[in-house]
Amino acid sequence: MGVYSCYARRYAPLVTMPITAPASPADSAGGPPGTTGPAVGPAHALADVTASDSALRRFLHGLPGVDAVGLEARAASLGTRSIKTTAKAYAIDLAISMIDLTTLEGADTPGKVRALGAKAVHPDPTDRTTPQVAAVCVYPDMVATAKEAVAGSGVKVASVATAFPAGRAPLGVKLADVREAVAAGADEIDMVIDRGAFLSGRYLKVYDEIVAVKEACGTDARLKVIFETGELATYDNIRRASWIGMLAGADFIKTSTGKVAVNATPANTLLMLEAVRDFRAATGVQVGVKPAGGIRTSKDAIKFLVLVNETAGEDWLDNHWFRFGASSLLNDLLMQRQKLATGRYSGPDYVTVD
Amino acid sequence: MSDHVSLSGSAARRLSVFKTYKLYVGGKFPRSESGRVYEVTDSKGNWLANAPLSSRKDARDAVVAARKAFGGWAGKTAYLRGQILYRVAEMLEGRRDQFVREVAEAEGLSKSKAAAQVDAAIDRWVWYAGWTDKISQVVGGGNPVAGPFFNLSTPEPTGVVAVVAPQESSFLGLVSVIAPVIATGNTAVVIAGEKSPLPALSLGEVLATSDLPGGVVNILSGRTAEIATPLAAHRDVNAIDLTGADEVLAKELEIAAADNLKRVLRPQPVDNVVDWTADPGTHRLTAFLETKTVWHPTGSLGPSGSSY
Amino acid sequence: MTMDKQSSLFEYAPAPESRSVVDIAASYGLFIDGEFAEAADGKVFKTVSPSTEEVLSEVAQAGEADVDRAVKAARKAFEKWSALPGSERAKYLFRIARIIQERSRELAVLETLDNGKPIKETRDADLPLVAAHFFYYAGWADKLDYAGYGPNPRPLGVAGQVIPWNFPLLMLAWKIAPALATGNTVVLKPAETTPLSALFFADICRQAGLPKGVVNILPGYGDTGAALVAHPDVDKVAFTGSTAVGKEIARALAGTRKKLTLELGGKGANIVFDDAPIDQAVEGIVTGIFFNQGQVCCAGSRLLVQESIQEELLESLKRRLSTLRLGDPLDKNTDIGAINSAEQLARITALAEQGEAEGAERWSPACELPSSGYWFAPTLFTNVTQAHTIARDEIFGPVLSVLTFRTPEEAVAKANNTQYGLSAGIWTEKGSRILAVADRLRAGVVWANTFNKFDPTSPFGGYKESGFGREGGRHGLEAYLDV
To answer: What residues does the Aldehyde dehydrogenase domain cover (chain B) (predicted)?
Structure first.
């Protein structure tokens, strides 16, 4: 019984379940990643809180509040960490390995996606020691092409779905979107939540939809749940959305679509890292985090890794548990990597444009 | 007192009723626990009354009463404190003649000069009554800190104040040192002028009938040094006004006051006689105020655009 | 592909700030009347780096004769300085503020070397606040008529100022900026363990072209300070330091004309209610007691946590403390630096031992202390009650005492149950509770949902035995004016 028994006692008087001891972090650290994670639907200790709309609301509104200034100050202060030499080299390679290399344009073509896949597998053709990225992230109709492009490499194919980015489509359409992507071979599904339902207080609808999508993902595809934090407007909402996502069985919680003005920030990512940390302590279930959109430089990426390291801890310093949704970030990381190797600053002509 | 008993019928002058002057402590009128009194005379040496000769224990009791009253008095709205102080002025106006007589006897003044002193004293209560709900705005306020914080400084009463009332001005001076202390929410233990304590002891009777909660003002008469010394050293007294202490006593009291770092209002230098009729300014109000500064995050438009 | 799990490699490599930015001379004199001079009796003392025990420099030690000479110089300078138009005095102060900004990295490194605090703090907190303080008071110099103290308020004369070692340059700024803005001249004694930044400040005065004698710096020990405050030609005494010394000064000044302000010790309560924003509260607790190794008069050294969330909060807090990085103060990633002196370390050690002896439960994160220098691991005491020495005495170190409460009333009563009254913290999401509790706390600074924030516009100072007078803001002018 850890401290999070109090958590539940405090925030959800309706929760009467016996709380199981959190799984030891070592359990997942020892074995190959990808073996843990909840079955479809909530099988964990906080199951009761989703029993009804009112129960869920009471739970979410009982979560500790977020002081915006304090949160941002903490994020900024971690941003002053100075990562040098060996730590920097490690961080750059780790960051490259965590990238979901993304193209989500109306103008995407098979050619574009194939080029992206090639880059994902060999980010720096001049240096084969460069790690691969984690995944390529495309629209559902490009999944098959992407799958082909990365075949045999170990790079995953992630597909946005559920009427990305707005999510304003009937549930049946969203689920069909997901099934098509999974059928085409997607290893990961990046869904968007119904922000309209969230902002109008229909938390259970948001929850149910995630559960349904998770089910549509089947047993093989991992589910990333995008909150579009820029539209949720408050940090309290981001914390609540995080808990809805995790309760509903998300494998990852993800900040943004990259399609609105405000995407991933150190503060909202810090907040979500606190959420996954607290969720694992409460349930034993580890959930990944994916900041997406707006992370363009190595310096930014390293700051996010510092957030991970000092908030959720090193169990999350692995691309099974942390991703960057980004496209231009990769080239900056590659240039920094070349700089560390050669001692000279690199330039855009020395990395590939795809 | 020149009344003589006459036994002859209707033509006889009526024998007046003397007042036993008593201390004013915790809203009550005790005698000194020591049972001692001392003779108070007018400026010509004629006997006026026997005043209580307060002891260290009376001082201690007064501090207990003042401390007990502090929370309630400081917690009242400034508006209500103003109402009560104004009520004191109203009550004084009704007993104006009595105070004119007592001040004339105490200070050897003509009736008209004594009346001027009493009128000024009443007006001073009115002046301070109006200050209760203004001083916070004058000395407090928001501070424009360089960050996403609301930052507000507010004056608060310092607590229990020991007041060594002026020796010369038995009523206007007395009022001028008591009113500013309590206007801001402090409570007071007042040592009346040693030689002429009667106006002070009578003031207690006015305060008792002015809706002023018991213990907010406590008035002791007796030997100034004897009462002031334990008060200056008392650890539950927060501040001391040395106005009525001479140079030697003031220094001793200030040394004793350092034991718990009382706020000390020093007396004016001897060559600088206080004109109690002059505009008193805010000095005596602010001398017994603490400034409390409260910070709170405001939320800000940080890089995330969602700092709420 | 999945990278091999090798997160142990993400141990941050050392990231030391360059020491070459500061050039410390082998010896320094007293700064009197615009010149550096040896002490009349030739006495010197050594100042060491608390993180390595390396001798940084040898500094002249002022005696009574030097105090007299400095006060005379300040008196002489006062006539012209106080007669300058405020707008001219302002420009000197603006110059000083700007030079401090220009030299801030040098001064940050210097302060870190001499004091032992992390470069992160000197760089991001001390130095920006120092410059801001001079900039703020510079602007007051020609606006004193509008400060609310009546028309044409006059300076007092010569200010004798004694400052502590915990924020050497910032405390200097708090003292000197308002004194000069109001037209006083100063003689300042820095602490014996941290004299260097004040001596560098003397050089800044030189660069700014400040008239001779307006600022005089006298390094020395307590006897130097005592001589300074006792000097008959000093008109104003400002002291920041221990309550015991503050009382001595108050006694020494009894019966004199000298105006006195004191900024003394504290035992701040940081009150965490069950509806607090927990993650930010944890940060606030950490900032409250581990900022500057807890060597802060307004530290939140007593954590008052609502009993219903004690377990949860402590677990979060311990987890957070385990991420604190203790070590080389010049490393940009260091969170906890060295204790300022062997003497202070001994005091902290003794009080912590007493805490254990009195039955409180002691906890520190796994934490390797460097082999040389003065170090103390971040320490948490639980099962502490108001009766424990560690809940009453100011430890002035990275030691947090955790107490519990059940109701807001009990929290306020315990918070106020101390002879001090400098700071307090409140953590709750309920606005009315913040205001109600803030109203009842007897403390000069109340941080609600934040802690240890400072600003030149914001008055700072204590209730009760934490001293009297305020520094900062409009309020801070009063101490240096004849009002």
So the answer is: 34-265
The whole-angstrom separation of Cα C160 and Cα C258 is 10
Question: Do the chains contact at A268 and B302, CB–CB below 8 Å?
Answer: no
Q: Domain locations in chain A?
A: 4-20+38-82+156-329
State yes or no: is C17 an active-site residue: no
* CATH superfamily of domain region A4-20+38-82+156-329: Aldolase class I (3.20.20.70)
Whether the ipTM is more than 0.85: the answer is yes
- Establish if B302 belongs to a structural domain: no
- Residue of chain B nearest C448, judged by CA positions: B296
A321 and A34 Cβ atoms separated by less than 8 Å: no
Of residues C111, C192, C205, C297, which has the active-site annotation? C297
Work out how many CB contacts closer than 8 A connect A with B: 49
Which one of B149, B298, B306 has the shortest CB-CB distance to A235? Answer: B306
- Residues of chain A with Cβ-Cβ distance to B305 below 8 Å are 230, 261-262
Q: Is C263 a catalytic residue?
A: yes
Domain count, chain B: 1
Q: Write out pLDDT tens, residues B261-295.
A: 999 999 987 667 789 999 999 999 999 999 999 99
Q: Which domain holds residue B291?
A: 49-297
Domains and CATH numbers, chain C: 19-264+463-480 (3.40.605.10), 269-448 (3.40.309.10)
Evaluate if residue A240 carries a pLDDT over 50. yes
pLDDT at position B307, please? 65
